[in-house]
Write a structure and sequence with these properties.
GO molecular function, one term: hydrolase activity, acting on carbon-nitrogen (but not peptide) bonds, in linear amides
Structural class: alpha+beta
Keywords: Autocatalytic cleavage, Hydrolase, Protease
CATH topology: Glutamine Phosphoribosylpyrophosphate, subunit 1, domain 1
Pfam families: Asparaginase_2 (PF01112)
Protein name: Isoaspartyl peptidase
Number of helices: 9
Strand content: 25-35%
InterPro entries: Ntn_hydrolases_N (IPR029055), Peptidase_T2 (IPR000246)
Helix content: 25-40%
Number of strands: 14
Shape: globular
């Protein structure tokens, strides 16, 4: 068994290389490396897989390049509404939230719900009341989340009357915005975490797969940890993360085969662009995607970050 393993994703979909400027590509690569190092530092110090995946996701939530936390997309009403989930494979405990508007790091609140409440999922105002009254979170004004990039994206979506998982001017025009991490710690415990700002121009409190245990997020010791990204409605209908787990538990499929068969099977048949990052009980990491790109990364045997963006990419050190 590996001493520990860590892998992350920053969203999947149509990421167009010919539109990607060199400096922007390097910014994404460095952002992925930063997230990996945040999680690695926890694992190197003997910390838990839960703390490692939360640290990795916090790094991406704090970076406006990604659709989570600081970089979340805007709803039709020009607000940020965020979802997140974390799961501990050791005891199948989980915490999730949806529709929060004033939480700087939703993934931290998801962990607090898991460890500090008797519930798995809290929503909207209730989740925020728990955050401020019982979990020590500080109220974060919507201004913190506002970026010109996301506002321009919203205006573009409104002009066509659509909800979108896309960017309006960036080379990842049709990237599905979610961030996630999976890890195995030195004690053999698996964990998964996922966070998102959801859909641009979304209405009516729409929720995707990210906070739904078994859809966008799942972890079970002796089995696997999975974080998914893509077209949330399709991922929900196919319960992607639990399907991968089940194929391994009951069908004796390898992690690689289970991920490939799910991502490139029924989901693809339903027209669902998506990707997953997963790790098994032996620390083997696997990425699967059925679209042109997924921001992703893991650690090499020396603990150094390796990252990739496009579907044809191999994982390489950040400065290559």
């Amino acid at each position: 068994m590996a001493q520990f393993s860590l892998a992350i994703h920053g969203g999947a979909g149509t990421i167009e290389k010919h539109r990607m400027k060199a400096d922007l590509e390097q910014a994404y690569r460095h952002a992925l490396a930063d997230a990996l190092l945040a999680g690695k530092n926890i694992l190197m110090a003997g910390g838990s897989s839960v703390d490692a995946v939360v640290a990795a996701v916090v790094s991406m939530e704090d970076n406006p390049l990604f659709n989570a936390g600081r970089g979340s997309v805007l709803t039709h009403d020009e607000m940020v509404e965020m979802d997140a989930a974390v799961m501990n494979g050791k005891d199948l405990n989980a915490g999730a939230l949806c529709g929060v508007r004033h939480i700087k790091n939703p993934i931290v609140l998801a962990r607090d719900i898991m460890t500090g409440s008797s519930h798995v999922m809290l929503s909207g105002d209730g989740a925020e009341k728990f955050a401020f009254n019982e979990a020590g979170h500080v109220y974060t004004e919507q201004d913190y989340f506002f970026t010109e990039r996301r506002y321009d994206q919203l205006l573009d979506a409104k002009s066509t009357g659509r909800a979108a998982l896309s960017e309006s001017t960036f080379p990842d025009d049709k990237k599905h915005g979610t961030v996630g991490a999976v890890a195995l710690d030195a004690s053999g415990n698996l964990a998964a975490a996922t966070s998102t700002g959801g859909l641009t121009n979304k209405r009516y409190g729409r929720i995707g797969d990210t906070p739904i245990i078994g859809a966008g997020t799942y972890a079970r010791n002796g089995n696997c940890a999975v974080s998914a990204t893509g077209m949330g409605e399709v991922l929900l209908r196919c319960t992607v993360a639990s399907d991968i787990s089940g194929r391994m538990r009951y069908g004796n499929q390898s992690l690689k085969d289970a991920c490939h068969n799910v991502v490139n099977g029924e989901i693809k048949g339903l027209g669902g662009e998506c990707g997953v990052v997963a790790v098994d009980a032996e620390g083997q990491v696997h990425f699967s995607l059925n679209c042109p790109g997924m921001y992703r990364g893991t650690l090499d045997t020396h603990g150094e970050p390796l990252v990739a963006i496009y579907d044809t990419d191999t994982l390489t050190p950040v400065n290559q």
